[in-house]
């Protein structure tokens, strides 16, 4: 069952429960997924669906972070959306799992101790392996810590 069907089912339940905030959040997420499917002109893969959910979470987080201090309503709405979206987001890789993938990439490239100069070459191979499973910022920081 695709994520679109799961979200549609959750949205119906939210409507029955008369939970307007949750229904609105799910509606926006469903809309983002459907628009991506229309743009692609074929059904989305699970990885693509997960990437869209993560993108929506990131956008809500940016809204939360950039909202003026006196606009609590915007912050509350963004926080509630993030909470709803996280229910449908895949679990991020832990730092330990990221380190394991980095170690595999280093072995693949034949690099024993990474230097900052090797970073571009490593990231080029590494990012496709963790795409949609880990935040790029965390991957970058973990690699930087390993190459000191």
From TrEMBL:
One term of GO molecular function: carbon-nitrogen ligase activity, with glutamine as amido-N-donor
One Pfam match: YqeY
Name of the protein in question: GatB/YqeY domain-containing protein
Native source species: Hungatella hathewayi WAL-18680
């Amino acid at each position: 069952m695709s994520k679109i069907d799961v979200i549609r089912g959750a949205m119906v339940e939210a409507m029955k429960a008369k939970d307007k905030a949750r229904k609105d959040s799910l509606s926006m997420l469903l809309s983002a997924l459907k628009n991506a499917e229309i743009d692609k002109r074929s059904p989305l893969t699970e990885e693509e669906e997960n990437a869209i959910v993560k993108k929506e979470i990131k956008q809500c987080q940016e809204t939360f972070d950039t909202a003026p201090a006196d606009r609590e309503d915007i912050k509350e709405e963004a926080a509630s959306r993030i909470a709803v979206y996280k229910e449908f987001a895949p679990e991020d890789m832990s730092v330990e799992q990221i380190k394991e993938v980095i170690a595999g990439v280093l072995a693949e490239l034949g690099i024993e101790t990474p230097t900052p100069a090797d970073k571009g070459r490593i990231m080029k191979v590494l990012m496709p392996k963790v795409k949609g499973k880990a935040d790029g910022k965390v991957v970058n920081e973990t690699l930087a810590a390993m190459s000191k």
